[in-house]
Known about the structure:
The protein has about 425 residues and is α/β, with parallel strands linked by helices. The protein is about 40% helix and about 20% strand. A seven-stranded mixed sheet has the order 8-7-10-11-12-9-13, sandwiched between helices.
Amino acid sequence: MLAPIPPDLFLSCLSPTDSATTVRFEKALRDGIGGRALLATTSLELHEYAELGLCRMRVLDDPIPVSVSQWGGEDDDRLIATYEQAHWAVDWRGQQLQVVQATWQTQCGGESRSWVIGESSDVLRDFVLDVARKTNDPGDSILVFHGGLWQRSRELYKATQLASFDDLVLSGSLKETIRDDFKRFLGAQERYESLGIAWRRGALFIGPPGNGKTHCVRALVKELHIPSLYVQSLSHRYYTSEELLQTVFRRARQLRPCILIFEDLDALVNEDNRSFFLNQLDGFEKNVGLLVLATTNHPERIDPAILDRPSRFDRKYHFELPTEIERKTYLRHWQERLAGETQWTDQEMAELAERTGGYSFAYLKELVVSSLLRWIDGTDGRFSEVLDSQAAELRMQMATTSLVGPHGMGSATTDVSGG
Length: 419
């Protein structure tokens, strides 16, 4: 015979701490729904699920919802309401469900819960599972990790779709090597398994800023057609970087095969989280199908245990400053596009390529674009003369400062598309 337990044990013992909040919600809901089924979950992407056309939902007035409205920006000029507390009626596969969503603050940050109410526990489990499965797939988005949370970015996805290896200038056969390595890896799962080797890959793009790492990452994301996750930050007011890394790798493993991107790895991994990061990379079976892709401008800041051990990053690709031949190839794209308007000759382009030793691709692009803007004013003479003047100014800038402006997944570096 089971020993009797007081029905209000958790409520009485946990109150008045934050831990009792969920208990109070649970008790109030169970008292109000009679014999209907109730299922609580910490994550329910209900709005995303509805946007996919998989359910219909409407907010109810009882209890009074709490919403916050924000401007959608110049590209979406309207007020967008998000609900902190709300009661929703949901139509799903002929079932009438209710969802109560609540968010509150604790001493350790924000907490949120969703309670789903319906006729049977089986229906509720099927609903929550389907929401999780359907919204876990990024679809036409890239998952971006920032502030301790994953968020879908359709804008970043669109930026990757504009990237092309055709617009990328790299030394020698580097571009072809990278494309072939990644394509062969994704097509070799059965071969790996037949040899008893874990089908996983770690790759590190190394080199000074502005020489194609970001553009190459974007082009790979577009070309490989697998889910992509981008780690933007591993800082949080309350959670440790180890906890954040655990969240990162957990989500990536749910989406395998996928690309997990750590841009500026030297800024993300430090002494406090290095050991945990290494442990996550070293996972054998749990990392099958995981392609970890990292970039760094400063390899000297990365611990040798990360940089030099093959099982962590078994491919390293170096993106160096362009040689004269590569500068000429890059500038030729611009010269061919602009010659009809600017009268920029082949000889002037070749002489400029010779004089711009030490320029990154990003500085070359800045040279052409800034010169074009000045030349359009019609006050600075021939276009080649404007280029010479701007080259001198940029040379002085290069001597005193690093490349201005952050480079992220959505920025352009070595592309010649003009974007």
